[in-house]
């Protein structure tokens, strides 16, 4: 029998689940963030969720919320419809109950933030942000106790040939996914794709940090020659438990492409790529994709309001495992 875990406000625009703390954060059209906690975190997964905090972060609608990685406290990044971008932390002051406090507001000139994602390296917490002008900024935090002290580590564009001159970019959306692998010998890496008017920006690129030269380099492009101008709606990097390659999902107007990414670079530092499947089933755009913790099942949702679950069989053939449709 199905059970309702939480009732969200009708003006809720986005949500994000904290797997470590068993908490839910939601954003609303009035610029409000709401935090839901399990009544009994130690009980079964069927525990109900109760709203424990509700606070205003901005005048504009909240369009995305992202939890910080485990080990960096209870903190959230928030993006609003007008491009405002801020970080909030739950803190206890003296004998007062826990409260959410603004710890960092990122200023922007003309461009607006479209998407952000966190990645954990050996020495710091990194945050990558994609902007409407096609630029990418990577911020770094060395002290997890000082969430206000972010430093801009790098700024670049999502292109392979950095010396080429492109026109002025206008990007309506972007999607970022960090490599969830945290092996000591692996460098920090993430995949990024744009939905823009500049074809060279759109295709998903895998970026890896070159420790020796302290810079970010594009090590792979997840697109066939005829697909490089396709606008990207969502990307998702799968957890890797023992595979000799990485798996990355990329959603465009053609469907959801499943890519295998090699682990060993060639003489030019590039990683091999192979498109192994193209999944179709959604009507309209794919808005969001998430892998399960094993990296074996991909969940996707989009404009058709259907959540679809995808898996590959023992022969490596991908298929739709289930489709979850709204009841009303």
In short:
This protein is mainly beta and 328 residues long.
Description of the structure:
- Strands 1-2-3-4 form a 4-stranded antiparallel β-sheet, with no helix packed on it.
- 1% of the residues lie in helices and 51% in strands.
- It contains 1 helix and 24 strands.
- The protein is mostly beta strands and 328 residues long.
Count of individual helical segments:
1
Sheet-strand content, in percent, reads over 45%
User: Main β-sheet: number of strands, strand sense, barrel status?
Assistant: 4 strands, antiparallel
Low-confidence stretches: none
Shape: globular
Compute the gyration radius: what is it? 20 Å
Taking the alpha carbons of the first and last residues, their distance comes to 18 Å
Question: How would you spell out the order of helices and strands?
Answer: EEEEEEEEEEEEEEHEEEEEEEEEE
Helix/strand class: mainly beta
The average pLDDT score comes to 88
Number of strands: 24
Helical residue percent?
A: under 10%
Strand order of the largest sheet: 1-2-3-4
Write the layout of secondary structure elements.
Layout: E1 12-18, E2 23-28, E3 32-38, E4 49-56, E5 62-67, E6 75-80, E7 85-91, E8 99-106, E9 113-120, E10 125-131, E11 135-141, E12 151-157, E13 171-178, E14 189-196, H1 199-202, E15 204-210, E16 215-222, E17 232-237, E18 245-252, E19 255-262, E20 273-279, E21 286-291, E22 298-302, E23 307-312, E24 318-324
Antiparallel strand pairs: 1-2, 2-3, 3-4, 5-6, 6-7, 7-8, 9-10, 10-11, 11-12, 13-14, 14-15, 15-16, 17-18, 18-19, 19-20, 21-22, 22-23, 23-24
């Amino acid at each position: 029998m199905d059970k309702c875990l939480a009732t969200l406000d009708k003006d809720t625009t986005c949500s994000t689940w904290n797997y470590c703390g068993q908490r839910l954060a939601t954003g609303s059209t009035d610029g409000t963030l709401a935090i839901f906690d399990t009544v009994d975190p130690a009980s079964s997964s069927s525990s109900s969720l109760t709203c424990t905090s509700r606070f205003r972060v901005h005048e504009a609608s909240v369009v995305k919320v992202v939890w910080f990685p485990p080990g960096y406290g209870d903190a959230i990044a928030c993006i609003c419809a007008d491009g405002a971008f801020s970080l909030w932390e739950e803190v206890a002051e003296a004998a007062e109950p826990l409260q959410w406090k603004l710890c960092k507001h990122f200023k922007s000139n003309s461009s607006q933030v479209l998407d952000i994602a966190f990645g954990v390296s050996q020495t710091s917490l990194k945050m990558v942000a994609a902007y409407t002008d096609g630029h990418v900024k990577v911020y770094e935090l060395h002290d997890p106790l000082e969430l206000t002290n972010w430093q801009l580590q790098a700024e670049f564009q999502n292109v392979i040939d950095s010396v080429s001159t492109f026109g002025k970019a206008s990007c309506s959306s972007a999607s970022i996914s960090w490599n969830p692998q945290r092996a000591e010998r692996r460098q920090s890496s993430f995949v990024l794709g744009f939905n823009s008017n500049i074809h060279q920006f759109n295709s998903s690129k895998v970026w890896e940090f070159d420790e020796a030269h302290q810079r970010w380099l594009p090590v792979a492009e997840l697109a066939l020659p005829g697909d490089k101008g396709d606008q990207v709606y969502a990307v998702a990097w799968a957890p890797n438990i023992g595979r000799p390659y990485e798996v990355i999902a990329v959603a465009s107007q053609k469907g959801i492409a499943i890519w295998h990414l090699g682990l060993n670079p060639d003489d030019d530092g590039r990683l091999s790529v192979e498109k192994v499947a193209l999944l179709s089933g959604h009507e309209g755009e794919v808005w969001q994709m998430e892998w399960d913790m094993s990296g074996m099942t991909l969940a996707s949702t989009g404009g058709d309001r259907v959540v679809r679950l995808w898996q590959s069989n023992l022969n490596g053939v991908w298929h739709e495992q289930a489709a979850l449709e709204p009841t009303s």
